[in-house]
Design a protein that fits this description.
Oligomer: single chain
CATH class of the largest domain: Mainly Alpha
Radius of gyration: 18 Å
Shape: elongated
Number of domains: 2
GO molecular function: DNA binding; DNA-binding transcription factor activity
Protein name: DNA-binding GntR family transcriptional regulator
Order of helices and strands: HEHHEEHHHHHHHHHH
Number of helices: 13
InterPro entries: GntR_C (IPR011711), TF_FadR/GntR_C (IPR008920), Tscrpt_reg_HTH_GntR (IPR000524), WH-like_DNA-bd_sf (IPR036388), WH_DNA-bd_sf (IPR036390)
CATH superfamily of the largest domain: GntR ligand-binding domain-like
Pfam family, one: GntR
Strand order of the largest sheet: 1-3-2
CATH topology of the largest domain: Four Helix Bundle (Hemerythrin (Met), subunit A)
Structural class: mainly alpha
CATH architecture of the largest domain: Up-down Bundle
Keywords: DNA-binding, Transcription, Transcription regulation
Largest sheet: 3 strands, antiparallel
Helix content: 55-70%
Number of strands: 3
Length: 229
């Protein structure tokens, strides 16, 4: 049984989309597997229509694909795809974050972003991959939103979601979530200090995990499975 998550009031489609994204990130919906909107709706105890609409949104985002007369398949991201996405994100995110170095908008929200950094450390300590992913998304997209370019924020958010199975999973398997949490603290400190060079260096290093990863999803799934005594 898929565990139902709780969210603030939204449209049913938006609620279903948040649910599905969380299930994709957690690995409950596996790459290469086909799922029907009807079955997912029954598991989540919601109506079929909003779930189907949400799954079609994920098709548009490149996270699922339609399988005629069967349902929706979770897209598997190849290593080459991950390298391409890492390159695009580096080209877009690094200069964007550099623009925010010393920005009054970041300083005005310093306490908010510091609280998000605390979430990283809490999630790392609990080895909670989903909470870590949520904090990661909130931190990076929250900062990018300060640039008032919603298309940029949305596009980078989509790229991040497409590589959901990798990166953070690998950090967890390698026991490096706490180190990644510290990376985020260092990025925030550099932004607040207005140190453009440090922001550039830290962001380039931060995005390298997608290039370095040589895992496939079955590798990750096996690595995070509970082991017997």
């Amino acid at each position: 049984m898929i565990e139902m998550l709780r969210f603030p009031p939204k449209t049913l489609r938006e609620q279903a989309l948040v649910e599905l994204r969380s299930l994709l990130v957690s690995g409950a919906l596996k790459p290469g597997e086909v799922y029907s909107a009807t079955a997912i709706a029954a598991e989540l105890e919601v109506s079929h229509g909003p779930v189907r609409e949400a799954m079609l949104s994920l098709v548009n985002d490149g996270m699922m694909e339609v399988v005629r007369n069967r349902g929706f398949r979770v897209v598997t991201i190849s290593r080459r795809d991950r390298e391409n996405i890492a390159e695009i994100r580096t080209l877009l995110e690094v200069p964007s974050m550099m623009k925010l170095a010393g920005s009054p908008r970041v300083r005005e929200r310093a306490d908010d972003f510091a609280a998000i950094v605390d979430k990283f450390f809490s999630a790392a300590k609990a080895e909670d991959i989903l909470a870590f992913f949520d904090a990661d998304r909130e931190f990076h997209l929250g900062l990018l939103a300060l640039l008032d370019n919603p298309r940029l924020t949305e596009y980078i958010g989509t790229l991040r979601d497409q590589t959901r199975q990798y990166g953070i999973y690998e950090l967890a398997v390698r026991g490096e979530l706490a180190a990644s949490a510290q990376d985020h603290r260092n990025i925030l400190d550099a932004l607040l200090a207005g140190d453009v060079d440090a922001v550039e260096r830290l962001m380039i290093g931060h995005l390298q995990y997608l290039r370095w990863s040589r895992w496939t999803f079955p590798d990750l799934e096996a690595a995070v499975e509970p082991r017997g005594e």
